[in-house]
Amino acid sequence: MSKVRLKRSQIITIVKFPIILIVLFFVLFPFFYLVVTSIRPAGEFLENTNILPRSFTLDHYREVFDGQKGLLYLKNSLVVTGTVVLISIVVGTMAGYALVRSRFRQSIVLTIIFILIFIRFYPRISIVVPWFLIMNRLHLLDTVWAVIILHLGLTIPFVVWLMYTFFKGVPMELEECASIDGAGFMRRFISIVLPLSLPGIASASIFTAFLSWNEFLLSSAVTRESAKTLPVVIAGYITDKGVVWGPMMAMSTLIVLPMILFALFLQKYLIRGMMMGAVKE
Amino acid sequence: MLKPLHWSRHDRKWVNLFLFPALFFVLFIQAGPLFYSIYLSFQDWILLSSGSPQGFVGLTNFKNATSDPVFIQSLKFTGFLTITTVPFQLLLGTLLAFLASGQSRFLQMSRALLVLPMVVAPVAIGTLWRLMFNDTAGPINNHFLNFLNLSGPLWLGDPFWAKIAIVIIEIWQWTPFVFIVISSAITMVPQEILQAAQVDGASRLQIFYKIELPLLAPAFLLVIMFRTLESLLTLDSILSLTHGGPGSSTVNMTYAIYNKGLREFDLGAASAQSWMFMLVATVLIFVIFKLTIKSEKKTL
């Protein structure tokens, strides 16, 4: 009996590995091909259909940064993401903590949770037209501020939710002791709660960066030219007349790279945000 | 349930102060424009012809939507996309989660790599697969299908195959999400129960059906809801893969409203359509809320 079982588990392992390898190939190949294409000479595009190009070139990257304001767009994306992470973390951490430690009635807490989930999933397209009009009236259209404000509406609820579930797992005894010793609210928050919540904050920061860096819909609605972020720029390479392959692939590589690095080296933190309560840890 | 600290009146003030900025942002950025768009949905306003609303038109915008061929087309395609992608994502993600569970270094590394498609910008996924599907130079026709001795279709030039292309990239991008959620749900299944069942002589299949599956049910439900809603909201990858074409065969609801509002600048119609969309989404959101509360209650 046990001999049979051993054999069976060996068979499973033998079948398992090739399947996983095949899946990995399909997952990774498009990324590999993206990078290869971004360094493929323009002339080779439709003519050489081999996976690997005959020669390599950095021309597309040079073109993106020299002629096409690539540096400005990259700067926009960095400024937007950085500012959004900073503000959402401060505002969201405070609110998440207050929610856990507040003595709201159950019904109020439930309402707040519903609102957070609603904002996570409602069709964001419905605020796009209003915001386009409002930003136009405020003369903020095509400024990074417009993008930052819209992203904050998206990221803050996420951070509140993440920090809320995080703080729920933090024991209160320490705070109670400090309270008895006469430490006020702010004192307890800064010197006891914050140090304990660093893993939660790391998770929320990386997830916020992921949301803001990749966001397309809202950014494209309020930018025209000088405040475009990378996703908007990439979509702009596809016109009705055709596709600008080289620069588009160079830009796509640039936008994909940081998130891949996050996913490889800080995966635990990134994933916690993506699952958002789907699984309890 | 945690017992809250005994607050002094002073603390109460701080709690409110801590909540205020988040509340302000959420109301200002989300709620305000939502109400504005309700107002707009009853107005006749095409921005290209006039700088201000041309008056209250009742339900006209809503009625027009039901006879707008692109909108109806987009409704069908949105449904098609959800029905074709979510079951595949669920099936493949779950299979992978069981296959790749384990402690070996190889499996740990595979798990880390399998997640990659869902972390990169959907816009870039569209461009990247536009290249893969290219019918003259793309590797799918030139290498993969050629290898199988098949001649590939004109992927993005044919209404049917363009839809299939979108189905493929949606499955490619979001199967990892199912995979990662089910993977971590599997690790939550208490080992003692499985061992006890094994000792009692249950077969592997019995253990899977009678123990693991019921324990994983809540995770499955949430994953299904998450994926269903998100698939309704897809925009970026479609925009950069097919641009909605050929014709408007791959325009989904979000895309149709996006075009109405930001290309044709028919603000009234776009707002009305977005609210029709919103009603459907709200029902689903409510289900997610109920499921979340249920799982919250268990841990409280």
From TrEMBL, chain A:
It is a multi-pass membrane protein. Pfam families: BPD_transp_1 (PF00528). Gene3D superfamilies: MetI-like. GO terms for biological process: transmembrane transport. Its main location: membrane. It is found in: Cell membrane. GO terms for cellular component: plasma membrane. Keywords: Cell membrane, Membrane, Transmembrane, Transmembrane helix, Transport. Residues 74-266 form the ABC transmembrane type-1 domain. The chain crosses the membrane at residues 12-36, 78-100, 107-133, 145-167, 188-213, 244-266. PANTHER family: INNER MEMBRANE ABC TRANSPORTER PERMEASE PROTEIN YCJP, MALTOSE TRANSPORT SYSTEM PERMEASE-RELATED. This is Unannotated protein. It comes from freshwater metagenome. The lineage of its organism: unclassified sequences, metagenomes, ecological metagenomes.
From TrEMBL, chain B:
It is a multi-pass membrane protein. GO terms for biological process: transmembrane transport. Residues 75-288 form the ABC transmembrane type-1 domain. Keywords: Cell membrane, Membrane, Transmembrane, Transmembrane helix, Transport. The chain crosses the membrane at residues 14-39, 77-100, 112-132, 160-186, 207-226, 275-293. SUPFAM superfamilies: MetI-like. Its main location: membrane. This is Unannotated protein. PROSITE patterns: ABC_TM1. Pfam families: BPD_transp_1. It comes from freshwater metagenome. GO terms for cellular component: plasma membrane. It is found in: Cell membrane.
